[in-house]
Amino acid sequence: MTRRAWLHGLAAAIISAAPALAETAPNDVVFADGAVEASLTGAPGDPGEGARVMTTAALGNCVACHQIDAMPDVEFPGDIGPALDGAADRWSEAQLRGIVIDAKHTFPDSFMPGMYKTSGFIRPGDGYTGKASDGDPPPILTAAQVEDVVAYLLTLTD
Amino acid sequence: MRRMFTTQLAATALGLTLAGAAWADPVEDTLIVDTDDGEIEFVTHAPAPDHLKGVVDEIWSGWHYREDETRDLQRDDFDNPAMVFADRGLDRWNAEIGANGESCASCHNGPETFKGLRAVMPRVDENTGKLMIMEDYIQSCVTERMGLEPWRLTGDQMKDMLALISMQSRGEIVNVAIDGPAQPFWEHGKELYYTRFGQLEMACANCHEDNQGMMIRADHLSQGQINGFPTYRLKDAGMVSAQQRFVGCVRDTRAETFAAGSDELKAIELYVASRGNGLSVEGVSVRH
């Protein structure tokens, strides 16, 4: 093996292993007063992708409960939670990350589902099939999707 | 209640007003239905029964949360798409389908002999001590007295019969027993009603007590009353029984649901029915 090929191989190994190594697993998330300081991925989120996650029913489905004036195209947003406009003025990045990961650390007994949470459920199902999940269910959002949503929320300033 | 209060408090503290408060209320309206036998006025809004005091003040039929057009469909039997199924139920009632040619009619005469039954169901059977939903009574006749294979609990035969029997009590006030032999079943149902199931960690109470009147996306959340069941659901273009609706609501929390007819959903049916004590049986209703 030439030195170059060897280096190339190493770089490839690092790149493919990097996200998995840096990603914080749902059960390892550390909350401080509801906030989560560290990014789940170590990489900045993509606000555009965050907006898609928030408005897609099978993903975050945030608009089922929240209105967002900055998203005028969303039809029939729900009004169960507060409108999210100005969220970035009211909460820090770490607080927003904590709310998206599991809002119950910020608002005890909140109606808002934990988006990056895999354990502690009563009769968890396999998605919306009504069947039992096989072991702990995967989180509703991936680590990267959580960071994308946080990146979008940070654009919501008054 | 408590959670809404917290949200309101938080929102006020942050100088926000809760968006959508204008939609929050069930529509003020009166349900008077044109029938072959003249007009019937229904109680669709009443003070909450005693066991809900301090938790819920007033109870509202799901009819009040639906759009104008949907509510109108229920004002006239001629427009109500559920009537077809009650009529089909009458055909089944008279059909000599039993192993020895029995029909429902051959034991019970006309369906009007069941007047009042729907208003007190579910109830504990005096002889067996078991909690019975209407389906259980129907099923025992089908299998034990007519010698047939069991009907599917949420199948057409069963729902047609539920519709027919429910119609015999329409306008009567729901009054299910929650004490005596019913009490342990009722307590079980209550516990389940407040249990946060599934990956979304939602209890019946989160949607139908804490957030009734609010919009969850395009759906106006009602109190989840069952006085109108079975109901014709426009979305499904078919009849839905209370058991079926419960299965769907639990599934929507990303939970492993309970089966229709399970002990859990029967207990929930008793408890939910008791939250509607004081509302009229609507016979067969229309929802979306």
Automatic annotation (TrEMBL), chain A:
Source organism per UniProt: Paracoccus alkenifer
Top-level lineage group: Bacteria
Residue ranges annotated for the Cytochrome c domain, each copy included: 45-157
InterPro entries hit by this protein: Cyt_c-like_dom, Cyt_c-like_dom_sf, Thiosulf_SoxX
Protein name, entry field: Monoheme cytochrome SoxX (Sulfur oxidation)
Claim: Chaperone is one of the keywords in the record: no
Signal peptide start-end: 1-22
GO MF annotations in UniProt: electron transfer activity; heme binding; metal ion binding
NCBIfam families: thiosulf_SoxX
Keywords assigned by UniProt, alphabetized: Heme, Iron, Metal-binding, Signal
UniProtKB/TrEMBL annotation, chain B:
Family annotation (InterPro entries): Cyt_c-like_dom, Cyt_c-like_dom_sf, SoxA
Cross-referenced PROSITE patterns: CYTC
Entry note: cofactor: Binds 2 heme groups per subunit.
Record's GO cellular component terms: cytochrome complex; periplasmic space
Signal peptide positions (record): 1-24
Protein residues bound to substrate: R245
Catalytic reaction(s) noted: L-cysteinyl-[SoxY protein] + thiosulfate + 2 Fe(III)-[cytochrome c] = S-sulfosulfanyl-L-cysteinyl-[SoxY protein] + 2 Fe(II)-[cytochrome c] + 2 H(+); S-sulfanyl-L-cysteinyl-[SoxY protein] + thiosulfate + 2 Fe(III)-[cytochrome c] = S-(2-sulfodisulfanyl)-L-cysteinyl-[SoxY protein] + 2 Fe(II)-[cytochrome c] + 2 H(+)
Binding site for heme c 1: C104, C107, H108, C141
Keywords, sorted A to Z: Electron transport, Heme, Iron, Metal-binding, Periplasm, Signal, Transferase, Transport
Keyword Oxidoreductase in annotation: no
Active site: C249
Residues engaged in binding heme c 2: C204, C207, H208, C249
UniProt-listed SUPFAM superfamilies: Cytochrome c
Keyword Electron transport appears in the UniProt entry: yes
Location of the protein in the cell: Periplasm
A molecular-function term among this protein's GO annotations: heme binding
Pfam families for this protein: SoxA-TsdA_cyt-c (PF21342)
EC number assigned by the record: 2.8.5.2
Needed cofactors: heme; heme c
Function, in words: C-type diheme cytochrome, which is part of the SoxAX cytochrome complex involved in sulfur oxidation. The SoxAX complex catalyzes the formation of a heterodisulfide bond between the conserved cysteine residue on a sulfur carrier SoxYZ complex subunit SoxY and thiosulfate or other inorganic sulfur substrates. This leads to the liberation of two electrons, which may be transferred from the SoxAX complex to another cytochrome c that then channels them into the respiratory electron transport chain. Some electrons may be used for reductive CO(2) fixation.
Oligomer status and interactors: Heterodimer of SoxA and SoxX.
Protein name: SoxAX cytochrome complex subunit A
Organism of derivation: Paracoccus alkenifer
